[in-house]
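WARN no homologs supplied; continuing
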Amino acid sequence: MNRTETSLTEELIQRCALKRNASIGPLSDAAYRELLLAVHSDPKTYAEETGELSFYYLAQAVQLYVDAQNNDEAYNDEEFMATRTERIKKLWDSLASIREKYGETTDLLRIKALLDGSDHEHTLQTLLHLQQGAREEIRATDLLSRPDTSDMWGNVFARPYLRLHAAIAREYLDTARFRLSQATCEQLLKDSPSDQVGARLTLALVYARLEDENALNRLDKTYNPHSNAWSELARAILLFKLSRLSSARRALKSYQMNTEGGAFALLHPTFVDVYIPDRPKAAAGSFEEALLAIHEAEPIIVDSPDFVGWAEQIPDFSAASDSYAEANGFDLNE
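OK structure emitted
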């Protein structure tokens, strides 16, 4: 997948600038822009001055982890697992060191929980225990932010809270707590209508599992004027669950046509690593997007065990999967 500078690095710059502005300002808009440039050029110094060293080192550690994934496609299975184990250990050790030296933050504790998340139930309970601390982080910085009151994402100090609850919503889905996942996602969309954490994507899958076609229609109308792999897949699964097979075939065809390699991704699921620091960015309609959507949809696909077999029996869909595999060097016999 395409890896770029993590959101944490960009947020660190904003956090330091806002704290520095509070201590010397308030600055004019032009002067504040100059401050942002200064922080960008020397983030460590400003992080030290503003008490953001924990966030600074977290951003550094996460960036190293993300960069280490760039060569994954060049490894065979054995090499990949060894490399993955090594980078997870490095990040784990970095988190422990940061926590000991500079203190803990919501993002640090969330990432630690996800790294330790071999069991979804344990991960969920750990994440739920972080909610109070996340709220306290926001309150502690209320006077420093320049929030957009209509969208919590406009407050950079509230973003860890939003990311935490997006992770909680996904864990609710993974542990079959569909109504709780629904409620969490819907609250996230109220708190942050811009939905930078992708709650609408999780919610589309939840609506499919709950067979709530009207709610999925409303969600698509609001957030998905252009298709994405989650909404396309959710539509196909929902219609299949409702036994409207002709409509389901059309929805599956739309998913196939609008998502590169979508048929292959569904019929031959591929390993997707833990989301550090959050859901990876993927181009709309890309194979990477299809992999993420299939990975997140696994709980509802498993709950509809005939869905994949039904899809595989559709000649055009199966042929599209085989064609993508051949064109991209996937060995279906492995």
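The chain is about 70% helix and 0% strand.
OK
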